[in-house]
Design brief:
35% of the residues lie in helices and 43% in strands. The longest helix is centred in the middle third of the chain and has 24 residues. The protein is elongated and about 50 Å long.
Amino acid sequence: MIVTTTDGVPGREVASSVGVVAGEAILGVNIFRDLFAGITDILGGRSGGYQKALREARDHAMRDMEEEASRLGADAVVGVDIDYEAVDTQKGAMLMVSCNGTAVTLR
């Protein structure tokens, strides 16, 4: 499956649009990762735990979006947008990633 943020695929022509597709992932962030991220925030630097969690959430959301496009018979997803959101709950932090785009067939 070809996935791109552009409105087309270089060297290919879009034959038809088969619909908007999306994928979402929400991951809990455990207390140890929160603790180490807090220390990193105080001392400065990058938070490896959060970066890994965001990467995993993005990968899950992208995979879900691609699977939906595949079920519709698409060859590609164009115009992909990825959004990130941190959600605080009474039980801790959650990371939410959503991906959406247009599923298309190519000539």
